[in-house]
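User: I'm putting together a small comparison set for a docking exercise, and I want a reference complex before I start. The sequence is below, and the ligand is EPU. Could you produce the 3D structure with the ligand included, as structure tokens?
Assistant: Of course. I'll restate your input first, then give the structure tokens for the complex.
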Amino acid sequence: MQHAYESSLVTASPWWRPDPGTSLVIQGGHRLAGTYPISGAKNAALPLMVSALLTPHLLTLHNVPANLDVAVLSNLLHGLGVGVSWSKNARMGLSLTLCADQVRPAFIDRDLVGRMRASVLLLGALLARCGEASLPMPGGDAIGLRGIDFHVAGLLAMGASVDIAGGVIHARAPQGLHGATIILPSPSVGATENLLLAAVLANGTTVIGNAAREPEIADLLLCLQTMGARVEGIGSDVLTVHGGVPLTGAVHSVMPDRIELGTVACAAALMDSEILLRHARADLLGAAGPVLANAGVELKEVDEGVIARRSSLGLTGVDIETRPYPGFATDLQAPAMAMLSTARGASAISETIFEQRFRHVDELRKMGANIAVRGQTAWVRGVERLTAARVMATDVRAAAALVLAGLGATGETVLDGLDHLDRGYDGMTEKLVACGAVMHRTTV
Ligand code: EPU
């Protein structure tokens, strides 16, 4: 079954051809070998695309990942009046040129907004550029409450009026935004990005304290700097923006995806295989690097990227606590759990970012994993091996975790809810097949 919206996605992202099949059949037990190219980071590409709204000049992004979230956002931007054009070449990957010489803030596709959390970033950028923005509460993965109170409080401090009624956010700043000092209650990635996008066009200086330090934010700031924005503190938790400078166009290459790197490295270790993760950067993993190393995931940096394999000591249980960067990324929690399900010994995995990010646990249990959840901690006792089952992906990272579980399981796993995988990854199944995995899509 295909969603009706999928055909409309071709409008602004002509490369997006929904792959046939909503389920993935995985024959477990095949070792992996070869080269897996790591794509541009989804969570860097999305805010970078939104930054095009801040200038009437051309913004060209290289190394854009061809995934469903990118297709949805390019359509949202197209609907807002932004010119969207795509090209592809071997060196730069997929490139996207955006031209927001005209912006029509009222033309927002509510259905598409409802499909993606990152659409909340349109709020800051549209408000800064057009003085008004009106969008439905953003959708996205059901992994927790995912409030927008930090975003709203920051925009209010910058002089906006914000009113939420009937599930729609109406924000206005007819006289323009002004600089402010904003201390975030916790280092929210989305709120930091939204307020940065607003701050570069606001009059005066904005200081964001307790800002998120994820590498994707540094990537956004580097691009904004190339566009002429004056920013200080890149990589730190205090970001200063001297706003009000008209922005030019820019050319920027999206950083490699650290979550895809960690996920496929877990797959290599799980399958006792060796894979070259081309274009990967291990330094972006933060605390996840040493934690995965303790679990038996060996990463070696080479000129072309990173070689991932299982350590000679085998896989061992480790304790994990997800934290804002540079802590262990919540987006790696589910894939790491899938790998640790067959590690020697026990692991305690605590999720501190999202309240409902253990929905993959029941699916892993169907495959024979021994996992007990108490509060925000999952206690994993490694079993000899997982066995195939029919399982359901409930979010992007749960989908990747279940792909890993299927690779390692005995028998034929069927993974439903494949659109979650497509939302977050550029051709993950094809890239794994090229490394020797045996899997195919199906509609059954
Ligand atoms: N929060 C609030 N109020 C706010 C904002 C956030 O209470 O106004 C809470 C959230 O409910 C959550 C916590 O703060 O409990 C962290 O949320 P954050 O804002 O940092 O996350 P996000 O911006 O919604 C991004 C990524 C997520 C990733 C998180 C954490 C994008 C598009 N999404 O989400 O990625 O898990 O940061 O690193 O960048 C994914 O790719 O699968 C994914 C979910």
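Residues 287 and 327 are 5 Å apart (CA to CA). The two ends are 9 Å apart (CA to CA).
User: Thanks, that's exactly what I needed.
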